[in-house]
Design a protein that fits this description.
318 residues; alpha/beta; Multidrug-efflux Transporter Regulator, Chain: A, Domain 2; Methyltransferase, Methionine Synthase (B12-binding Domains), Chain A, domain 1; five-stranded parallel sheet; 15 helices; 58% helix
Length: 318
């Protein structure tokens, strides 16, 4: 557990900021701040006589670094008790491949989620996933918990060890948790906006939701418009929201047909030149050369998408 020395007289340790202001400065919602405090004691805010939590500059700096480190893939449970100088050292180092240290926790969470699915226990499934998202951070959560869980559920369905009803329940819960993650991160003033959708006739939206949660965790303002969105409505939403990027997820070719390349050409022709058009998913990779010729940037994976976002944010700020 981390605690400030009670005798520290420095101004940086003086309590002064309410939780809503800390949420704005750190990009974490009050919900996540409370969860980190309750479970990991990452900071120990002072309480006023009326019960309001007040945070110091040191609390804010510590929480900001913890958020950035979790975005790099560090599990919050492994770094929560480290002193601030150690967090600074970790952040200043070249980002290390932390997947090995987090993989055991992620694999355990994926297994627990699959077991909850097989027991048809939606409440436990949601609790497992929310806990994993908070403790592992969004990159590890989507790459090493949600993605393998979906694969194992699909394999179980084909082998008749997971029923259609169980698969549908899990999909609903995963969708709910990813939607919650999009709301967890507070949007800073001036944050760039990305619109996330699936194209017309494409109904599979979990890839889009994972991309939306990833963008939100990196400080983007996300407008998520769901699956099967007509091109005219997408272009209108981009104009009204002032978005600087559009992210499209195209996973499986729909049975009723879906002209992905035609849609991408149409979108690119209608979007302002400064708006970046991104597309990912299995179907996009199948037609990569044609999609890029249509003016879209094909993103091979969520990891590539996350790596691209900081550069796009810098370009939006220029």
């Amino acid at each position: 557990m981390y605690n400030h020395p009670v005798t520290d007289p420095s101004p940086a340790s003086a309590p002064r900021y309410p939780v809503r202001l800390v949420a704005l400065r750190t990009g974490l919602s009050p919900h996540v701040l409370r969860a980190w405090e309750r479970r990991y004691r990452v900071v120990s805010p002072t309480r006023t006589d009326g019960g309001q939590r007040l945070y110091s500059d040191l609390d804010v700096a510590r929480t900001q670094r913890l958020r950035r480190l979790t975005e790099q893939g560090h599990a919050i449970g492994r770094i929560a008790s480290l002193p601030l100088p150690e967090l600074v050292r970790l952040e200043e180092e070249a980002p290390a491949d932390t997947r090995e240290t987090a993989s055991a926790d992620a694999a355990e969470a994926a297994t627990a989620a699959l077991e909850a699915t097989r027991r048809f226990d939606d409440l436990e499934l949601q609790a497992v996933l929310e806990r994993a998202a908070i403790t592992l951070g969004v990159p590890v959560f989507v790459d090493q918990v949600v993605t393998p869980l979906l694969k194992r559920i699909g394999e179980g369905w084909s082998q008749h060890s997971v029923s259609v009803a169980q698969e549908h329940m899990a999909t609903v819960v995963i969708r709910r948790v990813l939607g919650w993650l999009m709301r967890v991160y507070e949007v800073r003033n001036g944050a760039p906006r990305v619109v996330v959708v699936t194209p017309p006739n494409y109904a599979h939206e979990l890839g889009a939701l994972m991309a939306a949660a990833s963008a939100a965790a990196q400080g983007w303002s996300v407008t998520y418009l769901g699956p099967d969105l007509p091109v005219a409505d997408l272009v209108s939403a981009v104009g009204q929201s002032g978005a600087r990027a559009v992210a499209i997820s195209a996973v499986h070719q729909p049975p009723q047909g879906g002209d992905l390349l035609g849609v991408l050409r149409d979108i690119r022709a209608r979007l302002p030149a400064h708006v970046t058009l991104l597309v990912g998913g299995a179907r996009a990779l199948e037609v990569r050369a044609e999609a890029e010729a249509a003016g879209a940037r094909v993103v091979e994976s969520l990891a590539e998408f996350r790596a691209l976002l900081p550069r796009l944010a810098r370009e939006a700020a220029e």
